[in-house]
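Practice problem: predict the structure.
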Amino acid sequence: MAYTRVNWEDRPSTNTPINATNLNKMDKGIYDATYENGLNVSNEVDEDYRVSFLKSKNLNDGINRGCWIGGNATTYGVTSNDTGIYIPVSGGNYTISTTISQARYRVCCGNDIPSASSTAYNGLNKDNTNETITINTTGYKYLIINVTDLNAMKITKGNTATTEDYFSPSIYVDGEEIYSKPEVLWQNPSPSSDMANNASINLSTDDYNSYEVLWVMSTSDTSNVFSSGIIPKGKSTILNTARCASGGTTNYERPINYNSDTLLKSGIPYSATASARSATASVLIPYMILGWK
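Answer:
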């Protein structure tokens, strides 16, 4: 619903009193615009120029991340044979619903990005049902969902299921979309294992203008993910970090080499303290490739 302005008037007018009615109207308008209907901002450079930001209540983007949850819902991970997603959470309750009965239907919370196997919390197994589930995510970083049909799932923050379909967060200027959510072009099926030198990274499409490499720097901890920044299509990039130890600071690098619009390759890691390039110089594992338009 569109917000109707109060149109405040200066004294001595009494048409717009500063009272609870008007202040609560402003309060509710700000809340609804920010948290319920997306952030809608009018930039009044002139009467014909408008900027709006729209987001979906449904947090399920339908992109399979290969998440699995064990039958007793106490462990979770990722494989190339499973169907599921994980989303970052901010605490509080999230509600998961499905439009069909799911042969596989499991949810849990966790503190690690899914990889080989991690401990699940507040896990539930609802196989062969179409129940609506509300799960408390307080104290955890991720919500993990493992189902048969991801497209039938809806996820929303709060205690009430949403009927809204997913749409990407987008910014529109005069009705023209100028920003959209990035697409996952590739995801590492084994992010807790080092990547071989010259390993192929096959992207799912060439329909992007730039890309971003998300990467981790430890085989034992994939909860901290780093970004390469936005890289123009057709260009290579270098993942880099520095580690401090008693002997001083060591810089590490790993090239990500452009071969074609759908093929990148993992270069040989390099340590500034090593006498030559070495596969053991550092981990620097590509975790996910995002495509931006």
